[in-house]
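Quick log. Single chain, no ligands specified.
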Amino acid sequence: MKIFGRIMVAVIAVSLFGMMLIFWAAYVKYQQKEIYLEDEKRLGDHYLYEEYSNGEKRVKDLNTEQVVLEDLQWIVSSEAGDDLAVFCQQGKRGYWNCSTGRVEIPARYERAWLFSEGLAAVMVGGKIGFINREGEMVLEPTWVYPLGEKQMDYLFKGGYCAVYDTSEWCGLIDTAGNWALDPDYDYIYPPEQGVRFLQCGEMWGALTDSLQVLLPVEYDWLKLVDGGILCIKGGDQCVVGRDGKTVVQAFVYDDVHPLYYSSGEFGEEGEELVVKCKYFEYGVWNPKGERFGLMNEKGERVTEALYSEIQALSDHLFLCTMEDGLYKVLVRL
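-> predicted structure:
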């Protein structure tokens, strides 16, 4: 009986183990069925980057179907046609060639950016330096990497790249690492259509490609538009040419609304009767909030857009709230 009992225990144990194996195999098979391709993008002419639902990220050769780069966290290629893409493995960045399918520079940097004009920014020891396409450090890590809104792409364009000094002031260096524009600014934007915008505090200015002053740093906001540069300064909005001098459009506004004031009379059902004012309210966008001014029926500006709200009291008298909202003024036309 003892032997029989032991045999039964053994049979039950083997059966349970077998059932566990069957369930495990079924679970693995089910999991494999659930893995699917979530995203993909071409890298050059012969390679494809794939992201799977299980978190796997890899690059495969489209001709051979072989995986040439795996265990990725991400990879970013250049839209400007450069064949060296930045990839990340285990928190480190390196460079992979979209044409040859080879890792040109191993993943060893804390951060890395795409190549531009023969150089690429990399972070070593918390500082920004620049390497060449062979991975040689040609500009030693010198510049700081600020966090938050001051982050930028560290690309050379037109021979210059915006970087931050140790005090987190922004300037432009040339390809030799020398200051071409002293670090006196909060932020310098990449050039666009021959114009490079810069900020100091809340004020905007603009430079030419040759770093000549196009517009001084005294505007609330600047933006490239068809035909020139949109300039906002206080309650004034205009468009100047790309030379920074020619006035293309002296009076620019974003929207216009009719104004009404009380007639002092009431209708049969007790409703207040209003009169349409001969002047209109126009709006101008400003980083501090939309501002309003008054224009006449011909579309001519009568007042600057200095107010956050305008209430017509008659055809010639208006109660205007100043932009800070702390007080109101009466404007008589």
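Helices lie at 2-34.
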